[in-house]
Amino acid sequence: QVQLVESGGGLVQPGGSLRLSCAASGFTFSRYAMSWYRQAPGKERELVAAFISTGGSTMYADSVKGRFSISRDNGKNTVYLQMNSLKPEDTAVYYCAARSYYSGAHYWGQGTQVTVSS
User: Fold this and answer.
1) Which segments within 2-64 are labelled E, that is strand?
2) What is the pLDDT of residues 92-104, one digit of tens each?
3) pLDDT tens digit sequence for 13-29
């Protein structure tokens, strides 16, 4: 059974930091491109950060470049999103996603709420 379980969300003041984690199970983690999306109220889900190749290349949305960092630990089947210098506009539900490098398989987590407010 495939599971992606996000954690680490919460309420943080502007300028603060959070680290999101996504624990994966039920599939071969190293064969999947892991990514983070977010969806703010009334807006479409958008890609925030992702691994885009088996070599570890990454990409980031322009809105988070220089502030967010995606990383993964294949030994722990976990992907992280370090978020620094948070802004109110970063407020959203953050989702972890896994997409196979080799097939069409694509899985989603349930999401974790991040609220940036003073």
Assistant:
1) 3-7, 10-12, 18-25, 32-39, 46-51, 58-60
2) 999 999 999 898 8
3) 999 999 999 999 999 99
